[in-house]
Amino acid sequence: MSGYKPLGGRIVTLPFIALGVLALIGFYYLGVRFTDGMAAVTNLNGGHAWGIWVVYDVVIGTAFACGGYALAITIYVLNKGKYHPLIRPAVLASLLGYALGGFGAIFDMGRWWQFYNILLPWNWNFNSVMLEVGLCVATYILVLVIEFSPAFLERIGAKGLLKTLNKLLFIFIALGVLLPTMHQSSLGSLLIAMGYKVDPLWQSLQLQPLLAILTAVTMGFSIVVFEGSFSAIGFRRPTETPLLSGLGKAIVGLIIVYLVVRFAELLFRGKCGLIFAGDFSSLMFILETLLFVVPVVILASEEKRRNGRLLLLAAISMLLAGAFYRFNAFLFTLDPGPGYSYFPSVPEIMVTVGIVAFEIMVFIVLVKTLPVLHTEEHA
Amino acid sequence: MKRRDFLKAAAGGAAVLCTGGAAQARENLQPAPQAVGMLFDSTLCVGCKACVSKCKEVNGMPPVIRDGQVQFDSASDLSGDTLNVIKIYKDGTAKVKDSEVDGFAFEKRSCMHCVNPGCVSVCPVTAMRRDPATGIVTYHADACIGCRNCTVGCPYNVPQFEYDNPFGQIQKCQMCNQAGVERIDNGQMTGCAEVCPTGATLFGTREALMEEAKRRLALKPGEIYNYPRGDLGKPYNSHEKAAPEYKQHVWGEKEAGGTNVLHISSIPFDKLGMPPLGERSAASIAEGVQHTLYSYLALPAVALAGLTYVVRRNTDDDGGES
């Protein structure tokens, strides 16, 4: 009926078991965090209150999960229906990525047992960017569940409910475009109040939300290309390169806009000299910028866009660029003052690795059992 | 919606985003009407750390022990167990007190009680509050979710989470006025000011302390001055001492909108580890951006209406199937 079918096949494979081992290690250390406190597992300290759990699991993880958002803009706002076959796996990946982000936010919360305080209106502080992020991400996870639910309802054959849902789905799709626009830009705005602690090369103040949303949408398109290419290889399915190469064009356009805004800010605020200062920040900036430029160079030509391998390479470069931009701003070049340094501990890293492994396991199980991947060959 | 229309709308949104922030940004806040604070005069501090010890006693916190030696308190920085700490500046031979070259000096680190507190601005659940009368910045664990945005948003890294406690909370100086202590409400002064033997830490109203600070800065080096101890409003005694050569800078008069705890010194503040702050508080810039985008949720509401219309039209063909 919908052209989407469960992939079927064995669930427990060797890679699946390997992922399971990583997940178990991660969950063990997560347990220690709850019994013995954050210091037992993390290297967080008085100057670095946000480590990889916030910066990777929440800030970068949800940007990686923008595939559903980017495709919703393409298909439902710009009315490009031909991309429809890509939406279900993208929404599933978004749901899992955001669920990880939400879960990450909870276990990073020092007073997690009081998390509901952010839902109580009399506690709300409307000056707080964090309030917007918290409420908006929580709502979007619910929206993603609803957006993905047709796959589940088809599987269990709940036709009546499916029909009703399909009639109302446009409201949730609209929310699914609005909410990520709001919180992905706000995740950038979190940097504003950090003031001087953020390196001048990344402290763009009023432009933080714009740079954050531009890179988030671009990462969304890139993750769709990435997942599409990997599904083709990993699950031995026909390649979707013709469809994905169209997204390559969007990626190029968005990166160019981003680079113009980024460098205009540095130019107008007189910070260009810092790029060539030769210190750690300038090195990170140059590396990050190269990662943004690589996809533009690769994807500018129509011919290269149609080459599945080059397209994948460009997408990976963009994903690294977006991740680097966030890591650099929030963590690598962050300077809270003399006497403080941070490098994540092994248990801290293992928690993040374990959660990502778990996320991939759930993705594999769901595409094998629910109608997520599109079946026919498409133009 | 045509692609061009969408791009136009997006560009318009981006324009609001970029320009509106500056247009609607709020000014720095003004000091609270009866703002209380402290004046720390680095040139008077002898590094005895009586204030560190008294602070622990008032707040019921254990001393930090280093290398197995109990020496009053060995805390080297603020933490969940230390709300007030004395740090040392050393240069070269470190022989001369209050000399930038080949000298040493002491610096107190504790909550500055900002006039525009970053922690209050960024806290999603209003667990950080600025007292409307006294300007004291207080913490309320019952509301706190432990996101630690206060630590990140504080220019001085003051709010500290108890990382070693699975059910920890944020700790910060509340000017000895938290529930159960309430020294200020009872007409007393802060613990650290009370025990300071040289009057390096002085308690008082922000206004009186500012006047005192400026009086000292106007002194000629070597001029004899009568330095009060304790509470500037009712000093229990004072001592006479030759004035040092002060830097003409009251830290906290203007930094990031000002603080209720003021510092003066004869060594530049960046050398004493104070952060590079302008007059505008970063939090007020963040608030300006946030209020431009989310005032009455008008912009999101309009966007949602437009998106709903467009999505509805574009899903008609395939029955809204996702």
Describe this structure in words.
The complex is a heterodimer of chains A (about 375) and B (about 325). Helices cover about 70% and strands about 0% of the residues of chain A. Chain A has helices at about 15-35, 50-65, 65-75, 85-110, 130-155, 160-190, 210-235, 240-270, 280-300, 300-305, 310-330, 345-370; strands at about 5, 375. The longest helix of chain A is centred in the middle third of the chain and has 31 residues, at about 160-190. Chain B is an alpha/beta fold. Chain B is globular and about 85 Å long. Mean pLDDT of chain B is about 90; it is low at about 15-25. At the A-B interface, α1, α3, α4, α5 and α6 of A face α1, α3, α4, β7 and α7 of B.
C-alpha-based Rg of chain B, rounded: 25 Å
Give the overall form of chain A. Answer: globular
Distance between the termini of chain B: 19 Å
**Total helical segments of chain A:** 12
| Cα-atom radius of gyration of chain A | 21 Å
Uncertain segments of chain B of ≥5 residues (pLDDT<50)?
A: 16-23
Task: Describe the strand arrangement of the main beta sheet of chain B, using strand numbers.
Answer: 11-10-9-1-12
> What's the number of domains of chain A?
1
Strand content of chain B: 15-25%
In helices, the fraction of residues of chain B equals: 25-40%
Order of secondary-structure elements of chain B: HEHEEEHEEHEEHEHEEEHH
The CATH topology name of chain A reads Formate dehydrogenase/DMSO reductase fold
The SS-based structural class of chain A is mainly alpha
Work out the count of structural domains of chain B: 1
Please mark out the parts of chain A with pLDDT under 50 across 5 or more consecutive residues, or reply none: none
